[in-house]
Amino acid sequence: MGKTGRTNKSYSEEVKKEAVRLAIEENMSYREVAYLKAEIAYLKKRYPNLHGE
Q1: How far is 27 from 36, CA to CA, in rounded Å?
Q2: What pTM does this model have?
Q3: For 2-33, how does the pLDDT look when each residue is reduced to its tens digit (9 = 90+)?
Q4: d(C-alpha 12, C-alpha 15), whole Å
Q5: 37: which residues sit within 8 A by CB, 6+ positions away?
Q6: For residue range 43-53, what is the model confidence (pLDDT) as tens digits?
Q7: Helix axis angle, 30-46 to 13-25, nearest 10°
């Protein structure tokens, strides 16, 4: 059993692949990559007109 208060998160294959690439090429941890992806998703929702997608 896990520790109290811990939750398991599932990440998409795209996020996992990008995390591996950044960990290898940029020496970033998986947690840092997940944080950056979440921050980008939040900002895209908050300011939808600022990105070109």
Answers
A1: 14
A2: 0.47
A3: 566 666 667 778 878 887 887 788 777 778 88
A4: 5
A5: 15, 18
A6: 888 888 875 65
A7: 120
